[in-house]
Amino acid sequence: MTRTHNAMREFVVPVAVAVAAVVPAMALRLTGGSTGPVGDAALFGLAILAAGFLLSWGAEAAEKYIATGFVLAMVALITVLPEYAVDFYYAYRAGQDPASGYVAYAAANMTGANRLLIGIAWPLIVGLNWMRNRRAEIRLPRNRAVELAFLTLATVYSFVIPLKGTISLLDTVVFVAIFAAYVGSFLMAGGFLVIGACLSALTRSQVVAFVLTATVCVLLILAGQPQVLDFFSGALPRKLVNALAYLSMLRHFEAIARGVLDLRDLAYFVLSTLGWLLAGVLLLELKRVR
């Protein structure tokens, strides 16, 4: 009982402190009040820091139930949305008056986060690791290869922008496509993983579980192919053929990889992942009852 009480206290107290740190800034924002430039900067800065802690704690908890890559992608998106809002304003004002200083503001805001990340955050992490473990390097696990590959791709392309001296719609398309492909790859990989986890609960044989998983994954990939749809179109009603096409995992992945972040595609991956997870939990519970 004491251990449970201590665990709850270790959870509730930090969360309560973080929420309390957000309240003053929220009150100022909702009422339109102000404590002056210095006070506002301090309160809102504290609120952003506390919100970051809450977001990181929530992400760590979510990793127990959702694919880590998907969680990191969503956290990254949520984290940069405020910066995007500021940059949208700068870009809009720069478009209205190209001779104004907002052009420089927009460019600086877009590249400032990367400068802070590469110039301060990464060296700081390496420095802290050296102070704690006396190691001058941090070895990244192999399962981070996909994130590093997409990050490298975006970083390499970012050198093109200063060389050509402009930021155009083409750059937007390229970066959105890179991020969309990153999100889509992890959504699809997460879907395959939960299918394997669910079907592994059916049997103790790893070979049988692998064959079942491979079969289901291949069927989900082939379901939306034109040849398969044409084969069933003559024997099944149109609605069933459309439903079969919707089950295709490859179809939804290709839509996201093209840079089209449709809520229907995101809903497909989220709902299918939750569905397979729920099925796996139910199978394990049935085995435990027996």
Q: What features would you describe in this structure?
A:
- This protein has helices at 2-31, 37-62, 68-96, 102-133, 145-158, 160-164, 169-200, 206-222, 226-233, 238-246, 249-257, 263-289.
- It has 290 residues and is mainly alpha-helical.
- The protein folds into three domains: 1-62; 79-139; 144-290, no CATH class.
- Helix 7 (169-200) packs parallel to helix 12.
- The longest helix is centred in the middle third of the chain and has 32 residues, at 102-133.
- It starts with a helix and ends with a helix.
- The relative contact order is 0.06.
- Mean pLDDT across all residues, rounded? 78
Helix tally equals: 12
Characterize the overall form.
Answer: globular
Radius of gyration: 24 Å
Total individual domains: 3
Sheet bearing the most strands, described? none
DSSP summary, beta strand count? 0
Brief overview:
With 290 residues, this protein is mainly alpha-helical.
